[in-house]
Amino acid sequence: MRTSLPRRIAALVLAGAGLTASIAPTDATAQFRLPTRFPVEMELTKPLGFRVGPGLSAAPVLANRNYLQPPTRVKVVAVQGSFGSAGAFCAVEYLGNKGYIRCDDTSALKLAPASAPAPPPSAGPSAPSAPSSVSSGPFCSSKETCRKFCVDNCTFDPKQWGPATCRFPASLLTSAGDPPRSALAPLPALTYVKAEPGVLASAAVIDSFRKADAYIQSHPGALPPGHVVMVDNCYRSTEKNSTRVCGFVLKGNHLQNKWKDRTPQNAAEEATKRRELADAEDYLEPKETKGLSWPGPGQHTRGNACDVKIAKVSGPEHDPDYDDLTVCRADTKDPKNRDLSRRLDEIMTNPAVGAVRLNYEMWHFEFGLTGAAAKNCRCVAPDCADKHWPPMCKGPSGC
Ligand SMILES: [Zn+2]
Predict the structure, then answer these.
(1) What is the CA(164)–ligand 1 centre distance, in A?
(2) How far is the CA of 362 from the centre of ligand 1 (A)?
(3) Domain housing 372
(4) 368 lies in some domain
(5) How far are the Cα atoms of 159, 276, 392 from residue 283, in angstroms, in the given order?
(6) Fewer Cβ atoms within 10 Å of its own Cβ: the N or the C terminal residue of the chain?
(7) Both 150 and 109 in a single domain?
(8) How many CB atoms are located within 10 Å of the residue 144 CB?
(9) pLDDT in tens, 1-41
(10) Residue 392 within a domain
(11) In angstroms, what is the span from residue 275 Cα to ligand 1's centroid?
């Protein structure tokens, strides 16, 4: 929830923390002065030009975007003039770009919600405890709000057509509550459970994989000969996860902008337009079309989820090849694949291991959520294979 500016500033003063600010009620609309120490994160509440110099005729900093739209966050580095007075400009940083926005209108900016410092520990035991700053939900949760979020925080080079480059505000990433690196470890070498290089998981998740390995050992036939359980990934940082999703969103946004004011000149261009606009819709809905979650925290970023497959082993023992089988591209009409998926469900969701699976992704397992089985698109064996086959692999549908 966002606190209104006057209340937030009052809280800052009460907290007695480093930043200083005061309310100067010179008229009915509460005026305020900026904190005197910089930098400070602020959020736009009105569109503001982002210029290379402190003047309204200065060139825009960003080639394609003269105005930053609310609720863009900027880091205010300094003020030229008196904040809220005619002619005042703020020197700001936005996505690594330095420039100026006018700051002569106090209703166009407010302190960014997460920038308030925590109360000092010396506040004493009778002081109310600070509310948890860990955000439980995504940073944006719809096609349009996520388009805006990605455009505000990320850039993308259409010539390269590669991943996006994002610079999310540090306070936002902190609010996502990723586990500290010290709470994660690489998956150890096990007999039947293998991991891609670099897979990091929490101690609890690693313990679950040890139990899965033991389950396979004590249940001959749990896996067909020459097959293993392959862990693709577990912990993925909020930053990486969000950057990946924004990469798709920005591609869709680019394709839509490309055709906004352009009329195809011939049949070939007409066909290209149709194809690219259809692609754009897919890119803008990565949750629906790619089974990804919106930017922000989720089960992978909290270290509670792993993507796990059954793989067929071939090649020499010292350098084996693993062919992932229970993946989206698997032929779901082939009964062999359904059988493999069922075996994986049994290995991962039996009571000793205790994982639950997404009912629309045969590889996504979550840990420590046993109560979530059969709820919120989750399932356990044998229901996953009996009631949710084939998994649509295109995000949730009707659950
Ligand atoms: Zn997953």
Answers:
(1) 20
(2) 9
(3) 181-236+300-387
(4) yes
(5) 17, 10, 18
(6) N
(7) no
(8) 9
(9) 333 333 333 333 333 333 333 333 333 334 455 666 788 88
(10) no
(11) 29
